[in-house]
Recover the amino acids of this structure.
């Protein structure tokens, strides 16, 4: 099963940029949860913690498309190091504002700066794969590999940030996320040999058209599934605390991602007869169904099993969406197109986390899992409208 992965990683420079991007992406699974753990520890409010986390992800969503456009135009080596430097400064100042009990507005401002500057490494690495590979089957494998590495990030990140924040210091997890993001992004950007050429659409001429019907439909799916992710993350932290085992929250989220990792490995290793749109529709429906039992679970071991099974639907769904974008968006706007999907996810995480935090404060964790279920059901409905555009890189 691993032969297909070995073939794509054997391409010159592939292992280096993919592994650097893995480290660079650790903040995406650590910062939101780290903010919740830090702010709740210092203030005692999940609602406030969810709101600060929401400011971070909303700012990221607001600037993600611009990041993608800048990367396509100016190149990865010029944009990514500058962005990650601003991100690091903003996150460090946000931690200082919380620890020193500065006026709350500064916590929001610095969270917004960090979120706005977070570079689009996930979109950039997929664009790099699309530039490096010509065979559609190999591209499918490469996208599956990156989906698997995304899940490695979401297996390792929540555990790390929870352990560091609860057993050492509330800011320790966020500090680790900051360092890994800076080191990984600089290492990724330094690998110029495999970088796609900047400005692939001539600045003086018209940009190639974006298939907006495809991209916006997929962005809507990602928006609703992002709400599912945000609500489930905050609620799972609250569930663990209600069970008297706050430290186990990161492990529960890691188990959820482990299910997705396994499914992603299988997705990239086999030849599919169905198109990516079919996998998107079925996968989004399965993600919604997996949320239904969570509100009835009152045991940590049972919750781990249910989350593990539910995670199996995540990677195939997201791989299907990314494959549809890769096949239907012009190469000169590919990073931008993938960033739009990422924008949808993080834009959904913000309201999902905030609403779930509000429900937790007033009705407890079990009721808050209904927010994740609602997001999943809306995503399954939106996915029914997704239809592939004609492939531009067949």
């Amino acid at each position: 099963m691993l032969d297909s992965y070995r073939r794509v990683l054997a391409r010159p420079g592939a292992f280096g940029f993919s592994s650097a991007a893995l480290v660079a992406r650790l903040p995406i699974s650590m910062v939101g949860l780290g903010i919740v753990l830090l702010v709740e520890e210092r203030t005692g409010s999940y609602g406030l913690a969810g709101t600060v986390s929401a400011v971070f992800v909303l700012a990221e969503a607001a600037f993600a498309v611009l990041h993608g456009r800048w990367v396509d135009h100016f190149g990865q080596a010029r944009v990514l190091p500058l962005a990650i430097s601003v991100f690091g400064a903003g996150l460090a100042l946000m931690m200082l504002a919380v620890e020193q009990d500065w006026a709350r507005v500064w916590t929001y401002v610095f969270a917004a700066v960090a979120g706005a500057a977070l570079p689009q490494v996930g979109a950039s690495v997929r664009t790099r794969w699309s530039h490096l590979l010509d065979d559609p089957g190999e591209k499918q494998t490469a996208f599956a590999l990156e989906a698997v590495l995304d899940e490695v990030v979401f297996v390792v990140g929540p555990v790390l940030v929870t352990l560091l924040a609860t057993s050492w210091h509330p800011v320790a997890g966020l500090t680790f996320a900051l360092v890994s993001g800076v080191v990984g992004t600089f290492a990724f950007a330094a690998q110029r040999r495999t970088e796609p050429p900047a400005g692939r659409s001539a600045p003086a001429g018209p940009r190639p058209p974006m298939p907006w019907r495809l991209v916006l439909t997929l962005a809507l799916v990602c928006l609703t599934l992002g709400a599912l992710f945000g609500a489930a993350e905050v609620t799972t932290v609250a569930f663990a605390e209600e069970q008297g085992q706050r430290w186990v929250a990161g492990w529960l989220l890691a188990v959820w991602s482990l299910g997705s990792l396994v499914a992603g490995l299988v997705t990239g290793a086999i030849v599919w007869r169905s198109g990516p749109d079919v996998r998107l529709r079925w996968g989004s429906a399965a993600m919604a169904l997996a949320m239904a039992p969570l509100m009835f679970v009152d045991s940590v071991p049972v919750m781990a099993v249910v989350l593990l099974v539910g995670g199996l639907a995540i990677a195939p769904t997201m791989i299907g969406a990314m494959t549809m974008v890769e096949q239907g968006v012009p190469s000169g706007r590919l990073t931008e197109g993938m960033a739009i999907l990422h924008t949808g996810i993080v834009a959904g995480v913000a309201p999902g986390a905030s609403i779930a935090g509000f429900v937790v404060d007033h009705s407890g964790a079990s009721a808050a899992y209904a927010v994740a279920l609602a997001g999943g059901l809306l995503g399954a409905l939106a996915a029914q409208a997704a239809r592939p555009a004609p492939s531009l890189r067949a």
Remarks:
- The radius of gyration is 20 Å.
- DSSP finds 16 helices and no strands in the chain.
- The chain has a mean pLDDT of 86.
